Amino acid sequence: MKQQLKYLKTLSDQYPSIAEASTEIINLSSILNLPKGTEHFVSDIHGEYGQFMHILHNGSGAIRRKINDVYGRSLRVEDKKQLATLIYYPEQKLKLVKEEEKNMEDWYKVTLNRLIHIAAKSSSKYTRSKVRKALPKDYAYVLEELIYEKEGVYDKEEYYNEILATIIRIGRADHFIVALGNLIQRLVIDHLHIVGDIFDRGPGPHLIMDMLMKYHSVDIQWGNHDVLWMGAASGHLACIANVLRLSARYGNLDTLEEGYGINLIPLASFALKAYEGDDCEIFDIRYDEETYNEHDLEIDRKMHKAITIIQFKLEGQLIKRRPEFNMDSRLLLDKINYENGTVTINGTEYAINDTNFPTINPEDPYALSEEEREVMERIQQAFINCEKLQEHVRFLFTHGSLYLKFNSNLLYHGCVPLNEDGSFRKVPIGNKSYSGKALYDILEQYARIGYYNQEDKEKRLFGQDMMWYIWSSEDSPVYGKEKMATFERYFVDDKAIQEERKDYYYQLIEREDVVERILEDFDMDPKNSHIINGHMPVELKKGETPVKCNGKALIIDGGFSKAYRGKTGIAGYTLIYNSWGLRLVSHEPYHSMEEVVAKESDIHSEFIVVEQVSRRKKVADTDGGKILKEKINDLELLLEAYRDGTIRER
Predict the structure, then answer these.
(1) Are 449 and 459 a contacting pair, CB within 8 Å?
(2) pTM to 2 decimal places
(3) 3-state DSSP call for residue 252?
(4) Distance (Å, rounded) from C-alpha 527 to C-alpha 519?
């Protein structure tokens, strides 16, 4: 009772009178009855900045649906397309319109009215206060007046018309259209979920991170590639080597050099010297012809080989340092017969297709050469001291986690490690074993220790090693394969030994008892909840479907990255969760903003309704609604305290 009274006295500082407490109760109670905001889920972006930005601009089709809601059949399809493109890319579309349109004044009048109606429709599910915060400062007052215009109020018709006429007359129509386009984009999507893997493969992860840091409402569930970069930013050498190798392999070293300003000249100089005369043929570059400069191919191959060998050495040191990781099967440099050009894996001898190892000492194969050590020390300092990278990684820590429970959805990037019978696999970490939610919690705790702990060097190193473990271990829920067969894919021409078997989770996710057990372990109601994850591309070409277990689980990795589109046959899935239910969207490949603007084309191709409700979901049905209800209850207790004299009004 004393604690409650203490809390109510603190609350009375914010609401010092019956009138103010009552007003807030009325306000919060009315908010509970608004439709829930639209959530947008995107997974496995892998640096594909252009496609990602377009999906944000069009809300995975949400803007086109909003235009249809407002205009139905009263507008031609061509007009709707132009309007949609204008909202996605207002500046670029305006340039083309001006080249073709003869009467811009009439076009401005019609277009401004249409955009205002769409903005009004998009704002209808929010309070005025929330909309006001979303308005651009320069036009906040005018936009608020226009958005909340009451139809049929003839006394104000001339007032509204004069606002638009003046905007056109004084040459501010273009600016106003841009402001309206950005406002509609902001209102159509209330919250964005990134279900892992922002980094690697594509050329623009740094640009994606810049954008996410400006986005109005976002959370991130870390993928194994994200955790790898987080480990690299902490200065962990094995993580840094993996980041460098993947950047070299996919022709994205520019991301590090130009995007983050990390100097790779030490690595380039070393590679040219160490592998002089070596064509490094098996260390080919998987590059995008549109963005990659083929003149860099020879040096990039050498850098690719140099960092790969360094990676294997550093990982070997780590595995020996942490026998509890149970990853000895990944120690392969000491299994090479350097005279015969073979390697023994799981008792079988294989020929290797590259035998030039000038930096490996067969007597101590995991030791870095002096030159390799100097290169990695310099690059390590570049990662640690890169202000932009550190800013991005801190954002991942503050806005991200390994999993999230949000509005009856359980979000994680990969899987929950399972045994063949569907039971949770117990994973030893330290002196204990963990599974399910507890495994996620302990791994996240160690990742945060590895980045933030500056006092205890041993704890910090273990946390950093754990980030590498999260990246690549069979028992990591965000990796979820029996091994990372990097060595085999480079050196052994045998598809069977290169195979990375998926966790049993991906076979058992169709079983309702398994899905329900996972949801219960995360303290969620299995009757009303869903699992949403990415990580494993859904091979649509082979007849796979992203909708699992009758819609209780959704795997939304559909090949957003160009590297996976050959497998999936599409260019990614996104998920929309609005007040009417869940809708899965499959996407066609995105080519360029210029093409979208000129042809008024779009890249979402198909909708799958996963779940549709008969009663529209309200704010009261959300996690935020539960918090509002608790606050209303507290305010009602405060009212009672005012009325019975326990607390005095001020």
Answers:
(1) yes
(2) 0.94
(3) coil
(4) 9
